[in-house]
Amino acid sequence: MRLAAPAKLNLRLRVLGRRADEFHAIETLFLRLRLADMLTLEPGGEGIRLRVRSGPDDGGGSASPVPDGEGNLCWRAARLLYDELGREPSVEIGLEKRIPVAAGLGGGSSDAAAVLVGLNRALGAPLDRPAVLRLAGRLGSDVPFFAAETACALAWDRGQRLLPLAPPPSRPILVVMPGFGVSAADAYRWWGEDGGSAAAADLLPTPTRLAAWEVLEELAVNDLEPPVELRHPELAEIREALRAAGAAVAMLCGSGSCVAGVFRSEDERDAARSALATGRAATSGWKLVSTCTEGPPGS
Length: 299
Fold this sequence. Notes:
By secondary structure, this protein is an alpha+beta fold. 33% of the residues lie in helices and 28% in strands.
């Protein structure tokens, strides 16, 4: 079985405060991207065997290597599923990384969700959808969104409370990857250290209006952007370069370190990529990846 594990963009990320368990409650709007890792699942054999290799789009978003054993979320997802079923683990997983690590694009979470959903299907779907989503919530905050297999959703709390939405029309995206990663734990800690005040849960537009880009462009915000940019001023420079190159929205991806520009046309995105590639990116080591959001054709 061959599966795609797509990246995501948090077009809106508000930090609502710290929970009693030390995790942070958030309100976020997820959009799925075409950029994706590729996985293969082959049930059988003894134990969980995981093979990891870098793909053509893995631009080195982090200096940290991707673990190929128990530290990998794919391995943990498979183990969790087999434990839930009361079966001995028996699968070989192949993972081709195209999404950079520690980049805010959700690659590890998406990989874990793909293993959960795909392996459950390969084993004859012994768990129903709610059970799979409950397991996803035990693996990480972004995993339920990917396991829900929706292209767009609002999420609250740690990401487990999901409201799937009709996606807006597909928009071109330019992702800029610096030569370093940022861990989510660091980003949220910095938010607290800088006196980050809990945002109020806003009264958002109706779901039908959330499918319109003129509305989404006004709602785009990331509360983690200021503390992360304070420690990594280069990320503010990337964001400003994307805006100068014509991006309708330019923002930190999740907790970083990637920065994404949302463009209104492929021509505008491609022109921006050319300008950055021959300008600041040529001397900075920035990596550029062109992709788009998932959604119907349109503007």
